[in-house]
Amino acid sequence: MKATGIVRRIDDLGRVVVPKEIRRTLRIREGDPLEIFTDREGEIILKKYSPIGELSQFAGQYAESLAQNTGCLICITDKDHVVAASGNGKKDFDGKPISKQLEAVITGRENFQARIGNSEFIKVTIDDSSEYAAQVVSTIICEGDAIGAVVIYSKEEKIEIGETEMKLAKVAAGFLGRQMEQ
Questions:
Q1: Has this prediction a pTM greater than 0.70?
Q2: Sorting pLDDT into bands at 50, 70 and 90, what band is 76?
Q3: For labelling alongside 126, which of 80, 107, 152, 172 has CA 20 to 30 A away?
């Protein structure tokens, strides 16, 4: 654990303020849910809660199935990082923080397809090298909230990403959103 040197007092209602610098660094916004853990040494651990994180194993299997059937890279994200990735190049994406562009797409509840060079084409992660030629993005909605995205990425310019891949991404996003509601 990393010490910050910041000390806060608990108020009479049992509340403590998480400093702005830490919230900014960890991308915690007003209204974001936090999980609370304790350990044997009596430490309290706050962790940003990811609803899709609960389904990470299931999301990984879903991504693997999509990757095998499309021949593309599949990424399933929450609002902060890639939860599951499968296909050629998955090691460059799995567990990485998402880009501000993708975060804006999720917040805006967008679904789109784009080719490299289009203004809609976005980076999925912060350090995405953009070696890909085409992409499809579909936002995952759960109980009215945008909670993540399904991204289908193709490296080969010859492979045409079109309506079929868009429908696959929408079906995956819809299915994952419904799984979260149960």
A1: yes
A2: very high
A3: 172
Radius of gyration of the chain (CA): 18
**How far apart are the C-alpha atoms of 148 and 51, rounded to whole Å?**
9
> Which element (helix H / strand E) includes 172?
helix 163-181
**Quick check: helix, strand or coil at residue 134?**
strand
Q: Write the Ramachandran bin of 57: left for phi over 0, alpha for psi from -120 to 50, otherwise beta.
A: alpha
Q: From the CB of residue 36, how many other CB atoms can be counted at a distance below 10 Å?
A: 9
Question: Encoding tokens for residue 94?
Answer: 């799995």
Torsion, CA 19, CA 145, CA 162, CA 70, rounded to 10 = 80
Q: How confident is the model at residue 53 (pLDDT cuts 50, 70, 90)?
A: low
Give the burial class of 108: count Cβ atoms within 10 A of its Cβ; 0-12 exposed, 13-18 middle, 19 or more buried: exposed
Phi and psi at residue 134, to the nearest 5°: -150, 155
| Res. 158: pLDDT tops 70 | no
**pLDDT over 90 at 5, yes or no:** no
Tell me the β-bridge partners of 35.
Answer: 47
Rounded to whole angstroms, the Cα distance separating 58 from 53 reads 10
Q: Are 116 and 132 in contact (CB under 8 A)?
A: yes
